């Protein structure tokens, strides 16, 4: 066997040799070249050398281009069975079955807005159907009414315990009755289910909610979210039950396929003439009404639901008082909403501050997250004033501080910091505690307030320990959390921001890291008032929220909602304005009566119980929430609206199907993209082979000579 | 003479460059293979109740499951997250897609030329097994494979329990970063007699054996 192999090898070698000779015989020119290469006494003529060089270069270039193009053409060619859009976008099918139209009526008055959303479901199939729809609302809205209209019939929703409401709905669905269920999934996400829509029937579901307007720098903002932003892992707000941990996912349809449209009308009554009224994305027409109110309509009549509707207005300067008190009297007490705008920031030098940036540079921050965070950090550094102090702490598996302690923001120290920023690389794990402890350690310089800006995208497992650390060591500092990407621990971030008396900024879209961080950092530049206190008249049985008053920043009004048994006399608001004591007394008798103040207070109270109140255990917290929700007819995580028709409308033997209604994909969104799944290994091999090939090509004469000999 | 020297230099440069490239490729594959060894250890500790076990001290991820394909002799530890950094070491579970305890789609991504190279041979009917951190094995059967354009297709994550494996397509493309993805869909099924599968059974699994060994300490 062995001998046999050896024999074959020898034979093969012989054949190769013969082939070479034959090859050279067949190509006499090549043989001549080899021979001439063998005799160096005959140097090649100069033009021939250049020709050869040119030929070599051209050949190599051609080879390079070929290899470069090869994979491109493979990728570029459409695969035979690519069916974009039909695979996952369940919308295409469900849309046909249930069309949806949204009609929104907004009534803004003072600092709150009452919004009525009418959604129409048309069943174009020939089966009885159930419509399921997930929709977003601004956070901390008070959803307080549900009405279902089928033809001429009107069914009013009742507020019930969540489980009870669900049981009622399921029973009605089985019995063939028209029914509707409105549940809260997250504080800003609700689901609506409508059962037993007859073939060809139109069902109108009307939801009403109250929300407080955002006020900043004298500008009012109202946002109506028209679609869900797809999030791989939205920060979980209430991870107290397993159900809350479930990802909320709904089918999405691309804009071009969507048949969803929304009509929006709004009435703005700011209590004063407006200086400016703008819609951010959608053109509008506005009419001034006699009593300083404005009526708005969409210029295009209706709009596709692919981006939020945002309205902003500024009352004419000097027409509104700097502080306002809104009141609602009910049987169970007096409710009030107090808004105080601190004196304009320009009149007073802002407080000096010590800003400590704590930046996560663990491996997961690599790429866009880190680049954008650094860009925002860089511009924040440039905006520091001479009186400010700062420091930068970076952490991954280990913690590093730029300076041993915060230093004055002199040009040299800023230049030093910028140098560090230029060198930062993301690598390693996420170990937060030492960085947090380092940021909280020591005392800020005299006459300054300490701000800690904590930027991370990481998951943490030792939440309790970290929260304890914040609560023990916070002192007078303020902690601002910034969560980037699909940060799995939004709950922790929110809790630490609350414990740290600061804010939590969540940045889900990596493209927005810089913009959102800049907004926060810009706000932090102008702290106006600290140690804000409110002294209510004694014996009024007052319950005011928020319990811990935040610092005020330029342009931000102080908003306090309260419930009292009796509300007369005056209230004293005091604080440190640019380091000096400041106070103002307001008479409680000068008020504007407004509906909805009580509802908004209840909503604030529920929010407070959900997040801030930690002395109560979960069952007693739940009891209070349920009582409040039932008294004020609010949808919460423990209570839902259910509307059930008295008599069945679906014959027992008729078929029934369920359809999820797709939300429109937000414009410009790429977040539900697939992960990439290839390494550069093949590329490396290809380039390596190519280089080797070029080498072989250049040495070919040498080798051929060897073979020939 | 000068010309000759230039030629020699060029040749050596080419050879060095070529070796450098081969080394780069070898490094990628070595990383993919070696990491799995380290990950097994982290997985054993996970099965023993430790959570978010960092396979190496500077890691920013942790094992979340173990994926096996008996017909293809594949046994891989799956990491949390499907970023490029994670996928170099192991297939990654897409954050936000369903975990094994939840309903909905569980999405696991891997590199088409390392861990998920075997997807090229996968056929409907093939079995896939996922072991979760409690040690429970979930059985899936491949029912479909698809090629989609990632630029115009999205993944919805709700619905019934389903396993989706994602890798790049085409398998032979030389350059990474193309838009096409190869998807494998597998539906769960109940497998009653777990111990009857000798190679990959619950009891004879090498990891289980190792786990028992570790538990003595």
Question: Secondary-structure map with pairings?
Answer:
The complex is a heterodimer of chains A (709) and B (217).
Chain A: H1 2-26, H2 28-38, H3 46-76, H4 91-97, E1 98-109, E2 112-123, E3 128-136, E4 142-150, E5 153-156, E6 158-161, H5 162-174, E7 177-186, E8 189-197, E9 202-212, E10 214-216, E11 219-224, H6 242-245, E12 252-253, E13 261-269, E14 274-279, E15 284-288, E16 293-298, E17 303-304, E18 309-315, E19 323-330, E20 333-340, E21 352-360, H7 368-382, E22 389-395, E23 399-401, E24 407-408, H8 411-423, H9 433-440, E25 448-456, H10 463-473, E26 478-484, H11 490-499, E27 504-507, H12 513-524, E28 527-535, E29 543-545, E30 552-553, E31 558-564, E32 570-577, E33 580-587, E34 592-593, H13 597-611, H14 618-632, E35 639-648, E36 656-660, E37 663-664, H15 681-698, H16 700-708
Parallel strand pairs in A: 1-13, 3-36, 12-37, 19-34, 21-22, 21-25, 25-26, 26-27
Antiparallel strand pairs in A: 1-2, 2-9, 3-8, 4-5, 4-9, 6-35, 7-8, 7-35, 10-11, 11-18, 13-16, 13-17, 14-18, 15-16, 19-20, 20-31, 22-23, 22-24, 28-30, 28-32, 29-31, 32-33
Helix pairs in contact in A: 2-16, 3-15, 7-8, 7-12, 9-10, 10-11, 13-14
Chain B: H1 2-47, E1 63-69, E2 74-80, H2 84-87, E3 92-93, E4 105-109, E5 127-131, E6 137-149, E7 162-168, E8 180-188, H3 206-215
Parallel strand pairs in B: 2-3, 4-7
Antiparallel strand pairs in B: 1-2, 1-5, 3-4, 5-6, 6-8, 7-8
Helix pairs in contact in B: 1-3
Task: Output the keywords.
heterodimer, A: 709 residues, alpha+beta, Immunoglobulin-like, Rossmann fold, nine-stranded mixed beta sheet, seven-stranded mixed beta sheet, 37 strands, globular, B: 217 residues, Sortase, Chain: A, eight-stranded mixed beta barrel, 3 helices, 28% helix
Structure at a glance:
With 709 residues, chain A is an alpha+beta fold.
Descriptive report:
The complex is a heterodimer of chains A (709) and B (217). Chain A is of the alpha+beta class and 709 residues long. Chain A folds into 3 domains: 2-68 and 699-708, no CATH class; 94-318 and 638-664, Immunoglobulin-like; 351-525, von Willebrand factor, type A domain (Rossmann fold), CATH 3.40.50. In chain A, strands 1, 2, 4, 5, 9, 13, 15, 16 and 17 form a 9-stranded mixed sheet that branches. In chain A, strands 21, 22, 23, 24, 25, 26 and 27 form a 7-stranded mixed sheet that branches. In chain A, strands 6-35-7-8-3-36 form a 6-stranded mixed sheet, sandwiched between helices. In chain A, 38% of the residues are buried. Chain B is an alpha+beta fold and 217 residues long. Chain B has a single domain (2-215), classed as Sortase (Sortase, Chain: A, Beta Barrel). In chain B, 28% of the residues lie in helices and 25% in strands. Chain B is built from 3 helices and 8 strands. In chain B, strands 1-2-3-4-7-8-6-5 form an 8-stranded mixed barrel. In chain B, helix 1 crosses helix 3. The radius of gyration of chain B is 20 Å and the shape is globular. At the A-B interface, helix 3 and helix 15 of A face helix 1, helix 2, strand 6, strand 7 and strand 8 of B.
